[in-house]
Amino acid sequence: MAWRSSGTTNASLIANLSKNGLIQSTRIQEAMQRVDRAHYAPRNPYDDHPQPIGHRATISAPHMHANACETLLEYLKPGARVLDIGSGSGYLTAVLANLVGREGKVVGVDHIEPLVALAEGNMAKSEDGQRMMREGQVRFVKADGRKGWSEDAPYDAIHVGAAAAEHHQELEEQLKAPGRMFVPVEEGSVQHIYVVDKDEKGVVVKKKLYGVQYVPLTDAPSV
Ligand code: SAH
């Protein structure tokens, strides 16, 4: 199903993802329409495939980005504050920023400086992206995402775009009550997406969704 959603334009990719039920919300449809994946993926940008972006990083497949947004949607209201850990290409950061709007804020964190610069450069390819960075609707920072980004905490939603070796306590602490985190977690030789929900009283519940293959959330390379 996922691979059948490829398109020849940004619009046809999004239309196919919707037709195949991988995007269900019109809000996500509109947000993904506003971000041209060609600004973020070096080759065949409208294929529903992940692809390498250098520095051992990968831009995730569009259906994974769509699913992350669908999963977090009720916490991505206009004005919400969002943390995107392992922001890589910056594509999802840009889509999230469209979902939370001008009153909202999305912080993209990556531990590789050239990828922080890549994400900024990618966003700057559109006027809208330039405006979002100028006005602080989007900000990219270099940091170890395992510790989150306390400066702008707490967050309505946290997306983790790399597989964590464990459930990092600091990320849970940086979630609002209520708030939701989407995080791939390594368990032996396999990885699963977890949804971590914190309710109004601060009670945290973790739900395992499905198996995935992400780049590890790890130490920064020493070179
Ligand atoms: N959401 C991104 C995914 C990029 S791949 C996209 O679709 O483009 C995963 C990213 O996680 C890589 O850019 C990698 O540099 C980053 N990463 C890995 N470990 C990290 C850590 N400890 N802190 C911050 N970023 C990390």
TrEMBL record:
Q: Which GO terms describe its molecular function?
A: protein-L-isoaspartate (D-aspartate) O-methyltransferase activity
What biological process terms from GO does the record include? methylation; response to stress
Q: Where in the cell is it found?
A: Cytoplasm, Cytosol
Among PANTHER family, the record links this protein to: PROTEIN-L-ISOASPARTATE O-METHYLTRANSFERASE (PTHR11579), PROTEIN-L-ISOASPARTATE(D-ASPARTATE) O-METHYLTRANSFERASE (PTHR11579:SF0)
Q: What does this protein do?
A: Initiates the repair of damaged proteins by catalyzing methyl esterification of L-isoaspartyl and D-aspartyl residues produced by spontaneous isomerization and racemization of L-aspartyl and L-asparaginyl residues in aging peptides and proteins.
Description of how the protein assembles with itself and partners: Monomer.
Return the NCBIfam families for the record. Answer: pimt (TIGR00080)
Protein name, per record: Protein-L-isoaspartate O-methyltransferase
- What is the species listed in this Swiss-Prot or TrEMBL entry? Periconia digitata
